[in-house]
Design a protein that fits this description.
Blueprint lengths: L3 H11 L18 H18 L3 H29 L11 E4 L2 E4 H20 L1 H43 L1
Antiparallel strand pairs: 1-2
């Protein structure tokens, strides 16, 4: 089962955000070798561009990790309201009012994570700039490839509907 960057890129390609070209398996080993080459290339590019500055790389990593925690926690808070019902595990300090559990404890966890991310944002300007550039670059690439997939799907659907209409 893929983990880390491989899992992220593979799921992006499967969700039609990346290109299918990356998912073609190796003829002999069956791995997503193009995806692995991309990840290795991006890692080398990052090391070369940062000149191996461990402090800079650590700050950039901290930026990504802390904002990942913020958005994961926020998604859990949102899910508490969107998907109601019993949970296997619940963060303590919940208020039950009119058939809704108000996740006060989870909200406090989110608040702590968010304040930590804001502190990181203002205390590490170089890491923040690089993190925002990295996020912007990926957003751009994913937006373009998603538009390509949408266009291709629209073309395929138009062809199918034309074939169906012409057969009647």
């Amino acid at each position: 089962k893929p983990v880390g960057q491989h899992a992220v890129f593979r799921h992006a390609a499967q969700d039609a955000v990346g290109t299918d070209w990356f998912l073609r398996p190796h003829p002999r080993y069956g791995t997503n070798y193009r995806l692995l080459y991309l990840i290795g290339g991006l890692q080398l590019f990052t090391i070369i561009m940062s000149r191996g500055d461990v402090i800079f790389l650590g700050g950039a990593y901290a930026f990504g990790v802390v904002w990942s925690f913020v958005f994961n926690t926020l998604s859990m808070v949102v899910l508490r309201f969107k998907k109601r019902g019993p949970r296997d595990f619940v963060v303590p300090i919940n208020i039950h009012y009119r058939n809704i559990y108000w996740p006060i404890g989870l909200g406090l966890v989110f608040l702590i994570m968010f304040l930590s991310a804001i502190a990181n944002l203002f205390t590490k300007p170089v890491a923040t700039t690089s993190g925002l550039c990295f996020a912007g670059a990926f957003l751009t690439v994913f937006t373009i490839t998603e538009a390509m997939h949408r266009k291709r799907r629209g073309t395929d659907q138009d062809r199918k509907s034309t074939r169906l209409n012409s057969s009647h």
